[in-house]
Automatic annotation (TrEMBL):
Pfam families: OMPdecase (PF00215). One of its GO terms (molecular function) is 3-dehydro-L-gulonate-6-phosphate decarboxylase activity. SMART domains: OMPdecase. Keywords: Lyase. GO terms for biological process: 'de novo' pyrimidine nucleobase biosynthetic process; L-ascorbic acid catabolic process. This is Orotidine 5'-phosphate decarboxylase domain-containing protein. It comes from Micromonospora craniellae. Residues 73-274 form the Orotidine 5'-phosphate decarboxylase domain. It comes from the Bacteria. InterPro entries: Aldolase_TIM, OMPdeCOase_dom, RibuloseP-bd_barrel.
Amino acid sequence: MFGLLREIRTGWTTVPEPVARRLASEGRASARWTVRREADAILQAGDRTVGVSPEPAHGMTRGEFRRLRGHQAVQVALDLHDLEHALRVAEALAEADVDLIEVGDPLIKQVGVRAIEQIKQAVGATRVVAEMMSADWGRDQVELAAGAGADVVQLIGPATAASVAAAVEAGRRLGTPILLDVPALHATQHWVQDMEQAGVDGFTVTSNIDVSFGAGHPLTRARAIRSWSRLPVAVSGGFSATDLPVLGSQDWDILIVGRSITEAVRPKPAAAQLVANIRSKRERQNAHNQP
């Protein structure tokens, strides 16, 4: 039911308005809050035409995500194993006004996609990224994550042309941005541009935390990818609020941080300080660029 209602709202599936409203009325009785949310959005549309909007009203549109290029957003990864702890940290992160909260693969493996659902319910308007890690992901992973409430799906693992095509198709159908990890062996201009042409909405560069600056450093790889693509590039590498060279770099669009925030004694002020530092830097840069 979620998929059908979302497809109606993205315009992927067009039905007469009375049919859409009947389906939405049935959806409001669902035990799943994501189905009820989609149903409510259709019913609240009133007399407006149903099935013509290219993007869903809930979540983060693909266009919005792509506009993170040059924005320098903060994404905090909940690479935790305890859901109750993750919920407390997520609520603190939302209060700290981080841009994106990532439900990490360890948490999803531990408790399933209900981790996505419960965290999204807890953080409200804050955008939630679901990290789906698999050797055989594609359409199913995107549908599972979006159906649980994910605003963005971040795909980690071996990427074949077929799996990327299937994931992109599901993302378009459900109005869900797809963030694709770039394996080190695939970090070539040809591969990146092929993936952009296939329809992914952004790239992620990850690295071990002990990698020093050089060819293998995530910022070095991100710089190259940004030169080959117009899409936003996220970087992850065990960064913290004290990594001044990283914070000051122009080579990333989304900075992914994890344990330095989630394991802090007080996650909220730690996250708030990081957000403030990055936004202050962005404001200074904007002021400098003005004529």
